[in-house]
Design brief:
By secondary structure, this protein is mainly beta. The chain is built from no helices and 8 strands.
Length: 110
Amino acid sequence: ERGHYAAIAADWNEDGENRCWAFVVTPRGGLRFDVSADGRFSGGNKLETAPRVIEPNRWYHVAAVSQGSTSRIFVNGHQVAETRLAPAVSCASRPRSYSRAALVCSVSRR
């Protein structure tokens, strides 16, 4: 989908090992979490919620977690999305798992 993606948090080349992740707000008010154990992103390592999970000009606590072969997104403490990562993308082969959270305030879409 084309449009404006608002970054919540991301890290590229985490710890110098090419591991990457990005957590964004989609143009239609959904959330998307991408993880990559080798620096390459593909459809097999993407988790996206339905549109309008968050509304403009409201506060939300959002968290994205990838542990082993499963990624999850939470909004205000409630799980809103889950997926199993493609085998080649699984973080299980790495010594550490991805686990990030962020507070989003006054989310506005243009």
